[in-house]
Design goal:
By secondary structure, the chain is α/β, with parallel strands linked by helices. The chain has helices at 3-13, 46-49, 58-68, 81-92, 105-119, 137-141, 146-149, 166-172, 196-209, 279-292, 295-313, 336-345, 369-384; strands at 25-29, 32-35, 40-43, 96-102, 124-128, 159-162, 177-182, 185-186, 192-193, 212-216, 240-243, 254-259, 318-324, 327-332, 349-350, 352-353, 358-361. The mean pLDDT is 98.
Protein backbone atom coordinates (compact mmCIF):
# COMPACT_ATOMS: atom_id res chain seq x y z
CA UNK A 1 0.00 0.00 0.00
CA UNK A 2 1.08 3.57 -0.60
CA UNK A 3 1.50 6.06 2.23
CA UNK A 4 -1.61 7.88 1.00
CA UNK A 5 -3.61 4.64 1.23
CA UNK A 6 -2.36 4.01 4.76
CA UNK A 7 -3.32 7.54 5.77
CA UNK A 8 -6.81 6.99 4.38
CA UNK A 9 -7.13 3.71 6.29
CA UNK A 10 -6.10 5.55 9.45
CA UNK A 11 -8.64 8.29 8.79
CA UNK A 12 -11.49 5.81 8.41
CA UNK A 13 -10.47 3.00 10.75
CA UNK A 14 -8.10 4.14 13.52
CA UNK A 15 -8.99 6.20 16.58
CA UNK A 16 -7.13 9.47 16.15
CA UNK A 17 -5.01 9.41 19.30
CA UNK A 18 -1.66 9.74 17.52
CA UNK A 19 -0.21 12.56 15.42
CA UNK A 20 1.89 10.45 13.07
CA UNK A 21 4.68 11.75 10.89
CA UNK A 22 4.10 11.14 7.13
CA UNK A 23 6.61 8.28 6.84
CA UNK A 24 6.08 4.52 6.60
CA UNK A 25 8.97 2.42 7.83
CA UNK A 26 9.21 -1.09 6.39
CA UNK A 27 12.62 -2.38 7.55
CA UNK A 28 15.17 -1.81 10.29
CA UNK A 29 18.69 -3.00 11.05
CA UNK A 30 20.98 -1.70 13.76
CA UNK A 31 20.75 2.10 13.94
CA UNK A 32 19.05 2.37 10.53
CA UNK A 33 15.50 2.36 9.22
CA UNK A 34 14.21 2.25 5.64
CA UNK A 35 10.94 3.63 4.29
CA UNK A 36 8.73 2.11 1.60
CA UNK A 37 10.69 3.94 -1.11
CA UNK A 38 14.03 2.57 0.05
CA UNK A 39 15.27 5.76 1.73
CA UNK A 40 17.62 5.17 4.68
CA UNK A 41 17.14 6.94 8.02
CA UNK A 42 19.37 7.20 11.08
CA UNK A 43 17.27 6.31 14.13
CA UNK A 44 18.17 8.31 17.24
CA UNK A 45 14.81 7.75 18.97
CA UNK A 46 14.66 3.93 19.09
CA UNK A 47 10.87 3.74 19.10
CA UNK A 48 10.95 5.99 22.20
CA UNK A 49 13.66 3.98 23.90
CA UNK A 50 12.44 0.50 22.96
CA UNK A 51 14.91 -0.71 20.33
CA UNK A 52 17.92 0.22 22.43
CA UNK A 53 19.99 -2.60 20.95
CA UNK A 54 19.16 -1.40 17.47
CA UNK A 55 16.59 -2.84 15.13
CA UNK A 56 16.37 -6.62 14.86
CA UNK A 57 19.40 -7.42 17.00
CA UNK A 58 20.50 -10.87 15.82
CA UNK A 59 20.61 -12.41 19.30
CA UNK A 60 17.08 -11.22 20.10
CA UNK A 61 15.80 -12.35 16.70
CA UNK A 62 17.38 -15.79 17.14
CA UNK A 63 15.86 -16.22 20.60
CA UNK A 64 12.40 -15.26 19.35
CA UNK A 65 12.58 -17.48 16.29
CA UNK A 66 13.63 -20.49 18.34
CA UNK A 67 10.94 -19.98 20.98
CA UNK A 68 8.07 -19.02 18.69
CA UNK A 69 8.43 -22.31 16.83
CA UNK A 70 8.24 -24.29 20.04
CA UNK A 71 5.69 -22.61 22.36
CA UNK A 72 4.02 -19.18 22.17
CA UNK A 73 1.54 -18.95 25.06
CA UNK A 74 0.17 -20.90 28.00
CA UNK A 75 -1.01 -18.16 30.46
CA UNK A 76 0.27 -17.73 34.00
CA UNK A 77 -1.75 -20.69 35.22
CA UNK A 78 1.27 -22.82 34.29
CA UNK A 79 5.07 -22.67 34.40
CA UNK A 80 7.39 -21.82 31.56
CA UNK A 81 11.14 -21.78 31.96
CA UNK A 82 11.87 -18.45 30.20
CA UNK A 83 9.65 -16.49 32.59
CA UNK A 84 11.15 -18.04 35.71
CA UNK A 85 14.69 -17.50 34.43
CA UNK A 86 13.92 -13.89 33.50
CA UNK A 87 12.48 -13.17 36.95
CA UNK A 88 15.62 -14.53 38.62
CA UNK A 89 17.84 -12.55 36.25
CA UNK A 90 16.02 -9.27 36.94
CA UNK A 91 16.00 -9.79 40.71
CA UNK A 92 19.66 -10.74 40.91
CA UNK A 93 20.73 -7.80 38.73
CA UNK A 94 18.86 -5.25 40.83
CA UNK A 95 16.89 -5.19 44.07
CA UNK A 96 17.03 -8.83 45.17
CA UNK A 97 13.29 -9.32 45.69
CA UNK A 98 10.62 -10.68 43.36
CA UNK A 99 9.14 -9.77 39.97
CA UNK A 100 5.65 -9.27 38.55
CA UNK A 101 5.47 -9.33 34.75
CA UNK A 102 3.15 -7.24 32.64
CA UNK A 103 3.08 -5.81 29.11
CA UNK A 104 4.06 -2.14 29.33
CA UNK A 105 5.42 0.63 31.49
CA UNK A 106 1.95 1.87 32.39
CA UNK A 107 0.97 -1.61 33.57
CA UNK A 108 4.15 -1.78 35.64
CA UNK A 109 3.12 1.50 37.27
CA UNK A 110 -0.33 0.06 38.05
CA UNK A 111 1.27 -2.99 39.65
CA UNK A 112 3.55 -0.77 41.73
CA UNK A 113 0.61 1.32 42.92
CA UNK A 114 -1.31 -1.76 44.00
CA UNK A 115 1.76 -3.06 45.76
CA UNK A 116 2.35 0.04 47.86
CA UNK A 117 -1.35 0.61 48.57
CA UNK A 118 -1.65 -2.92 49.89
CA UNK A 119 1.50 -2.50 51.98
CA UNK A 120 -0.01 0.63 53.56
CA UNK A 121 -3.77 0.56 53.08
CA UNK A 122 -5.23 3.92 52.09
CA UNK A 123 -1.83 5.56 51.94
CA UNK A 124 -1.03 8.49 49.69
CA UNK A 125 1.47 8.35 46.84
CA UNK A 126 3.77 11.35 46.50
CA UNK A 127 4.99 12.29 43.01
CA UNK A 128 6.80 15.31 41.59
CA UNK A 129 5.81 17.75 38.88
CA UNK A 130 7.08 16.86 35.44
CA UNK A 131 6.62 13.13 36.07
CA UNK A 132 5.16 10.74 33.52
CA UNK A 133 4.18 7.27 34.68
CA UNK A 134 1.68 6.21 32.00
CA UNK A 135 -1.82 6.78 30.64
CA UNK A 136 -3.94 4.15 32.41
CA UNK A 137 -5.99 5.59 35.27
CA UNK A 138 -3.70 4.89 38.20
CA UNK A 139 -0.58 5.78 36.22
CA UNK A 140 -2.26 8.90 34.84
CA UNK A 141 -3.26 9.96 38.35
CA UNK A 142 0.44 9.75 39.23
CA UNK A 143 1.31 11.97 36.25
CA UNK A 144 0.75 15.57 37.38
CA UNK A 145 0.44 17.16 33.94
CA UNK A 146 -2.75 19.17 33.51
CA UNK A 147 -3.06 18.66 29.76
CA UNK A 148 -2.94 14.88 30.16
CA UNK A 149 -5.14 14.63 33.27
CA UNK A 150 -7.87 17.24 32.79
CA UNK A 151 -9.87 15.55 29.98
CA UNK A 152 -10.23 12.37 32.03
CA UNK A 153 -11.20 13.65 35.47
CA UNK A 154 -12.14 12.53 38.04
CA UNK A 155 -8.91 10.65 38.57
CA UNK A 156 -7.89 8.09 41.17
CA UNK A 157 -7.64 9.85 44.55
CA UNK A 158 -4.74 9.69 46.96
CA UNK A 159 -1.93 11.30 44.98
CA UNK A 160 0.03 14.35 46.10
CA UNK A 161 2.21 16.23 43.62
CA UNK A 162 5.03 18.49 44.78
CA UNK A 163 7.85 20.43 43.17
CA UNK A 164 11.02 18.40 42.47
CA UNK A 165 12.63 20.01 45.49
CA UNK A 166 14.15 18.11 48.44
CA UNK A 167 12.45 20.22 51.09
CA UNK A 168 9.04 20.14 49.40
CA UNK A 169 9.20 16.39 48.99
CA UNK A 170 10.32 15.78 52.56
CA UNK A 171 7.45 17.94 53.86
CA UNK A 172 4.92 15.92 51.83
CA UNK A 173 5.91 12.54 53.29
CA UNK A 174 4.36 11.51 56.61
CA UNK A 175 2.83 8.52 58.37
CA UNK A 176 -0.01 8.40 55.82
CA UNK A 177 2.32 8.06 52.84
CA UNK A 178 2.33 4.71 51.09
CA UNK A 179 5.11 5.58 48.65
CA UNK A 180 7.15 8.15 46.85
CA UNK A 181 7.22 7.41 43.10
CA UNK A 182 10.00 9.03 41.05
CA UNK A 183 11.76 8.77 37.70
CA UNK A 184 15.48 9.23 38.39
CA UNK A 185 15.52 10.92 34.98
CA UNK A 186 12.18 12.22 33.76
CA UNK A 187 11.84 11.14 30.15
CA UNK A 188 8.62 12.43 28.63
CA UNK A 189 8.93 15.89 30.17
CA UNK A 190 12.27 16.41 28.47
CA UNK A 191 15.06 14.36 30.08
CA UNK A 192 15.12 16.18 33.40
CA UNK A 193 17.67 14.62 35.75
CA UNK A 194 16.40 14.61 39.34
CA UNK A 195 19.09 15.80 41.72
CA UNK A 196 20.92 13.35 43.94
CA UNK A 197 19.88 15.53 46.86
CA UNK A 198 16.23 15.03 45.95
CA UNK A 199 16.62 11.26 45.64
CA UNK A 200 18.49 11.08 48.94
CA UNK A 201 15.79 13.16 50.66
CA UNK A 202 13.13 10.82 49.29
CA UNK A 203 15.02 7.81 50.64
CA UNK A 204 15.44 9.41 54.07
CA UNK A 205 11.80 10.50 54.29
CA UNK A 206 10.52 7.07 53.28
CA UNK A 207 12.75 5.38 55.83
CA UNK A 208 11.62 7.76 58.54
CA UNK A 209 7.91 7.17 57.93
CA UNK A 210 7.91 3.55 56.75
CA UNK A 211 6.88 4.41 53.19
CA UNK A 212 8.16 2.72 50.05
CA UNK A 213 10.47 4.42 47.57
CA UNK A 214 9.65 3.37 44.00
CA UNK A 215 11.75 4.30 40.99
CA UNK A 216 10.27 4.38 37.50
CA UNK A 217 13.07 3.14 35.23
CA UNK A 218 10.82 2.44 32.27
CA UNK A 219 12.80 4.80 30.04
CA UNK A 220 16.07 5.35 31.91
CA UNK A 221 16.74 1.69 32.74
CA UNK A 222 18.24 -1.17 30.68
CA UNK A 223 21.61 0.47 30.09
CA UNK A 224 20.28 3.74 28.71
CA UNK A 225 22.33 5.89 31.12
CA UNK A 226 25.50 3.82 31.10
CA UNK A 227 24.73 1.39 33.92
CA UNK A 228 22.20 -1.42 33.70
CA UNK A 229 19.86 0.48 36.04
CA UNK A 230 19.89 4.25 36.43
CA UNK A 231 19.66 4.09 40.25
CA UNK A 232 23.14 2.55 40.35
CA UNK A 233 24.63 5.98 39.58
CA UNK A 234 22.65 7.82 42.26
CA UNK A 235 23.75 6.24 45.53
CA UNK A 236 20.06 5.63 46.34
CA UNK A 237 18.48 2.18 46.20
CA UNK A 238 14.66 2.03 45.91
CA UNK A 239 12.34 -0.51 47.49
CA UNK A 240 10.82 -1.33 44.11
CA UNK A 241 11.16 -0.23 40.52
CA UNK A 242 9.30 -0.44 37.24
CA UNK A 243 10.94 -1.39 33.95
CA UNK A 244 9.71 -1.83 30.38
CA UNK A 245 10.58 -0.32 26.95
CA UNK A 246 14.05 -1.73 26.12
CA UNK A 247 13.60 -4.82 28.30
CA UNK A 248 12.09 -6.86 25.46
CA UNK A 249 14.67 -5.94 22.82
CA UNK A 250 11.87 -4.48 20.70
CA UNK A 251 8.91 -6.56 21.92
CA UNK A 252 6.35 -5.43 24.53
CA UNK A 253 7.04 -6.28 28.16
CA UNK A 254 6.97 -4.55 31.52
CA UNK A 255 7.94 -5.62 35.01
CA UNK A 256 7.68 -4.57 38.63
CA UNK A 257 10.77 -5.56 40.58
CA UNK A 258 10.72 -5.44 44.38
CA UNK A 259 13.34 -5.48 47.07
CA UNK A 260 13.10 -8.05 49.83
CA UNK A 261 10.84 -5.94 52.09
CA UNK A 262 7.99 -5.80 49.57
CA UNK A 263 8.56 -9.17 47.89
CA UNK A 264 5.59 -10.96 49.48
CA UNK A 265 3.01 -8.16 49.77
CA UNK A 266 1.01 -9.30 46.74
CA UNK A 267 -0.37 -12.84 46.96
CA UNK A 268 -2.35 -15.14 44.68
CA UNK A 269 -5.38 -13.31 43.26
CA UNK A 270 -4.15 -9.78 44.04
CA UNK A 271 -3.07 -8.99 40.49
CA UNK A 272 -2.68 -10.64 37.12
CA UNK A 273 -2.16 -10.29 33.38
CA UNK A 274 -3.11 -12.79 30.69
CA UNK A 275 -0.17 -12.32 28.34
CA UNK A 276 2.50 -11.22 30.80
CA UNK A 277 5.82 -13.04 30.86
CA UNK A 278 4.94 -15.35 28.00
CA UNK A 279 7.72 -17.61 26.73
CA UNK A 280 8.41 -15.67 23.51
CA UNK A 281 8.75 -12.26 25.12
CA UNK A 282 10.66 -13.66 28.10
CA UNK A 283 13.12 -15.30 25.71
CA UNK A 284 13.56 -11.99 23.91
CA UNK A 285 14.17 -10.20 27.21
CA UNK A 286 16.75 -12.74 28.33
CA UNK A 287 18.63 -12.23 25.09
CA UNK A 288 18.37 -8.44 25.44
CA UNK A 289 19.77 -8.64 28.97
CA UNK A 290 22.62 -10.85 27.82
CA UNK A 291 23.68 -8.14 25.36
CA UNK A 292 22.96 -5.11 27.55
CA UNK A 293 24.47 -6.26 30.82
CA UNK A 294 27.99 -6.20 29.43
CA UNK A 295 30.54 -3.89 31.06
CA UNK A 296 32.11 -3.11 27.68
CA UNK A 297 28.78 -2.03 26.19
CA UNK A 298 27.87 0.07 29.23
CA UNK A 299 31.25 1.82 29.12
CA UNK A 300 30.63 2.44 25.41
CA UNK A 301 27.28 4.06 26.28
CA UNK A 302 28.94 6.42 28.74
CA UNK A 303 31.71 7.38 26.33
CA UNK A 304 29.40 7.76 23.33
CA UNK A 305 27.00 9.84 25.41
CA UNK A 306 29.80 12.25 26.24
CA UNK A 307 30.71 12.52 22.55
CA UNK A 308 27.11 13.19 21.54
CA UNK A 309 26.53 15.74 24.32
CA UNK A 310 29.72 17.60 23.42
CA UNK A 311 28.73 17.69 19.77
CA UNK A 312 25.25 18.94 20.55
CA UNK A 313 26.67 21.83 22.57
CA UNK A 314 28.58 22.99 19.48
CA UNK A 315 25.50 23.21 17.24
CA UNK A 316 23.87 26.49 16.32
CA UNK A 317 20.57 27.23 18.12
CA UNK A 318 21.40 24.79 20.98
CA UNK A 319 21.38 26.68 24.28
CA UNK A 320 21.92 23.76 26.68
CA UNK A 321 22.22 19.98 26.84
CA UNK A 322 21.19 17.70 29.69
CA UNK A 323 20.87 14.01 30.46
CA UNK A 324 23.07 11.03 31.15
CA UNK A 325 24.60 8.38 28.91
CA UNK A 326 22.56 8.06 25.74
CA UNK A 327 19.46 9.68 27.24
CA UNK A 328 19.87 13.31 26.22
CA UNK A 329 17.88 16.45 25.50
CA UNK A 330 18.88 19.82 24.12
CA UNK A 331 17.16 23.16 24.54
CA UNK A 332 16.85 25.27 21.42
CA UNK A 333 16.26 28.93 20.67
CA UNK A 334 14.05 27.66 17.84
CA UNK A 335 10.75 25.69 17.70
CA UNK A 336 11.71 22.09 18.46
CA UNK A 337 8.72 20.41 16.74
CA UNK A 338 9.60 22.11 13.44
CA UNK A 339 13.25 21.10 13.81
CA UNK A 340 12.28 17.48 14.53
CA UNK A 341 10.04 17.44 11.45
CA UNK A 342 12.77 18.85 9.20
CA UNK A 343 15.25 16.38 10.65
CA UNK A 344 12.97 13.51 9.67
CA UNK A 345 11.72 14.67 6.28
CA UNK A 346 14.77 16.54 4.98
CA UNK A 347 17.75 14.98 6.80
CA UNK A 348 16.33 11.51 7.47
CA UNK A 349 17.24 11.66 11.15
CA UNK A 350 14.71 10.28 13.64
CA UNK A 351 14.36 12.09 16.98
CA UNK A 352 11.48 13.94 18.64
CA UNK A 353 10.40 17.08 20.43
CA UNK A 354 9.11 16.77 23.98
CA UNK A 355 8.24 20.45 24.30
CA UNK A 356 8.19 23.74 22.46
CA UNK A 357 11.98 24.11 22.60
CA UNK A 358 13.18 20.64 23.65
CA UNK A 359 14.60 17.90 21.43
CA UNK A 360 15.06 14.39 22.85
CA UNK A 361 17.67 11.94 21.59
CA UNK A 362 17.63 8.24 22.54
CA UNK A 363 20.18 6.62 20.21
CA UNK A 364 20.71 2.86 20.15
CA UNK A 365 23.27 1.70 22.67
CA UNK A 366 25.12 -0.07 19.86
CA UNK A 367 25.54 3.13 17.82
CA UNK A 368 29.07 3.93 16.68
CA UNK A 369 31.11 7.12 16.84
CA UNK A 370 30.49 7.45 13.09
CA UNK A 371 26.73 7.22 13.72
CA UNK A 372 26.95 10.01 16.30
CA UNK A 373 28.98 12.22 14.01
CA UNK A 374 26.55 11.62 11.16
CA UNK A 375 23.58 12.38 13.40
CA UNK A 376 25.17 15.66 14.49
CA UNK A 377 25.76 16.61 10.85
CA UNK A 378 22.16 15.82 9.94
CA UNK A 379 20.81 17.69 12.94
CA UNK A 380 22.94 20.70 12.04
CA UNK A 381 21.27 20.69 8.65
CA UNK A 382 17.81 20.59 10.23
CA UNK A 383 18.70 23.47 12.55
CA UNK A 384 19.78 25.60 9.61
CA UNK A 385 16.41 25.18 7.87
Amino acid sequence: MSLAELQELERTSVIGSYARMPVEFVRGEGARLWDEQGNEYLDFLCGIGVTSLGHCHPRVVAAVREQVGRLMHTSNLFYTEPAMRLARRLSESSLGGKVFFCNSGAEASEAALKLVRKARAGGEVVVVHGAFHGRTYGALSATPQEAKQAPFAPLVPGFRAVAPDPQALRAAVDARTAAVLLEPIQGESGVNVLSEELLASAREACDEHGAALVFDEVQCGMGRTGTLWAYEQTGVKPDAMTVAKALGGGLPIGALITGERLADVLVAGDHGSTFAGGPVIASAALAALDVTDDPALLEHVRELGERLAAGLRELAHVSSVRGRGLMLACELDAPAPAVARRALLEQRLVLNATGATTLRLLPPLIATEADVDEALERLAGALEG
